Amino acid sequence: MTPLANSLSCLIALGCASFLWRKGSSPYRNGGLLAGFLVLFGVFCYFGGDINDPTLEHYPFRMLALCLCLSTTSLPLYRRRYLVLAQSLWCWIELFGGIALYYRGIDIAWTRIAALLCMTLCSTFLSKISKEMEFCLMVFWLAVWVFF
């Protein structure tokens, strides 16, 4: 995936994150949105990247995990709990997606997994997430997405 398409995928995930967990939304609506976002991310990967590239197999799931991480910053209650769960999901997707790619001869992105694991462990000790910390978390996630 080119750097422009990679950056565009960040913007798409950020835009989709703003529609999740609105006040008064039902779990069915949120589940439908997540399924729709996954389809949108799959279509984006189909048109934005080389379909024969095996690294794009789990790219839509990585985009969904980034979208979930970004959407947790807007939660009014239990923000830290869902933040840790979203980061754990992203780490899980990276680890098992990397293992699947390793069997195809592609190296595992250990730096990305280590950065996510460290941030997940550090996020469990946050007592309160302020607006400044939300911004720092978003910048960290986007940096992990773009640079690692």
Task: Explain the overall architecture.
The chain has 148 residues and is an all-alpha fold. The protein has 6 helices and no strands. α2 (27-48) packs across α3 and α3 packs antiparallel against α4 (79-102). The chain is globular, with a radius of gyration of 15 Å.
The poorly predicted ranges are: none
- SSE pattern, N- to C-terminal: HHHHHH
* Integer-rounded radius of gyration: 15 Å
Report the span from N to C terminus.
Answer: 13 Å
Provide mean pLDDT, rounded: 89
Secondary structure category: mainly alpha
Helix content: over 70%
What would you call the shape?
globular
Number of strands: 0
Supply the number of helical segments.
6
Largest sheet: none
Task: Assess the beta-strand content as a share of residues.
Answer: under 5%
Characteristic terms for this protein:
148 residues; 71% helix; mainly alpha
Secondary-structure map:
Blueprint: H1 3-17, H2 27-48, H3 59-71, H4 79-102, H5 110-123, H6 131-147
Helix pairs in contact: 1-2, 1-3, 2-3, 3-4, 4-5
Summarize the structure.
This protein is mainly α and about 150 residues long.
